[in-house]
Structure formats: C-alpha cells, structure tokens
Design a protein that fits this description.
By secondary structure, the protein is of the alpha+beta class. The chain has two helices and seven strands, in the order βββαββββα. The strands form two sheets. The chain has a four-stranded antiparallel sheet with strand order 4-3-6-7, with no helix packed on it. The chain has a three-stranded antiparallel sheet with strand order 1-2-5, with no helix packed on it.
Length: 155
C-alpha cells in the first residue's frame, strides 16, 4: 500500500490582541426579574476570539482605571442580566467583558442616586448657589449705593 503524505498549509492565525467592543450597561427593574429588584443588563461582542465571560464590581467610590486592572479588586463573575447587590443605587457599577484571549473591556455606570451615593439633591451645590446669589445681591447694593452717592454729590 502506498501512503501519501499531504502537505496542508494552514494560514497563520494572528493572536487576538484587541479588547471586546465598547458597550453601555443599563440598569432596570421589573417584577418579572429578580423579584422586582434592580438589575444590570449588558452585552458586547469580540470579533477576534469571542466573549468568554462577564464580571461585575460595585463600589460606593469611583475606582481608577489602574486599580480596576489590579488584583485588589474582587470581580464577581456574572451572567446577563444580573441582580445588583446595592439596591439603593448609590454605587458605581463596573462591568468587565473578558474575551477568550484574556483581553478585557470595562464599562462603568455612575450611581443613579448621585455620585458616591449622594442624592441628586446635593446640599453642597445648593449652598454654593445660595452664596453666589447672596454675593450678587451684595454687589448690586454696593454698586447702587455708590451710584446714588455720585448722583447726590454732583448736585
């Protein structure tokens, strides 16, 4: 018997060095999902090697990009959609999409209840506005008095 060896040349496959595509998570609430509790929905694609899994991190404080990439962050592997642990919506929500080559893309949601867990009614901002208005009124009175004195002195 004659054995033939076939030489098959396969095209070289470039390693996937690109992260998954950018994406925007959304927060929702429905009686049909998670018993009416808040959840986050997300989805993206990776044209190179495909999405392997998603991870979630919730924090009351904003986290830098450098720290998000460190081992100090305890990412939680999740499915889409997933229930949020912080039902007060005062946390920053980070979703990391990881592809089969280990590349990742992180999307962030600001706390709907205000940055750092503060209400959207920010007392510091209101105080700043009031001080500005008070300063404008004082300036107006000062300029008015000065104009009034100049008019009475010129008579």
């Amino acid at each position: 018997s004659v054995v033939r060896k076939l030489a098959v040349s396969l095209p070289e496959i470039e390693p996937d060095k690109s992260p998954p595509l950018s994406f925007t998570p959304l927060i929702g609430k429905s009686q049909d999902l998670f018993g009416g509790k808040y959840f986050v929905m997300f989805n993206t694609a990776d044209p190179g090697s495909g999405i392997k899994h998603y991870e979630l991190y919730e924090s009351r404080r904003e986290v830098s990009k450098e720290r998000l990439g460190s081992r100090s962050i305890r990412w939680r592997r999740v499915e889409n959609p997933t229930q949020l642990r912080d039902q007060t919506l005062h946390s920053f929500v980070y979703i990391r999409a990881v592809d089969r080559s280990g590349n990742s893309q992180i999307a962030m949601l600001l706390p709907p209840g205000g940055e750092g867990g503060q209400s959207t009614f920010n007392s510091g901002r209101v105080l700043g506005i009031l001080v500005t208005i008070l300063a404008a009124i004082c300036l107006w009175f000062f300029l008015r008095q000065r104009t009034f004195r100049n008019v009475t002195n010129s008579r």
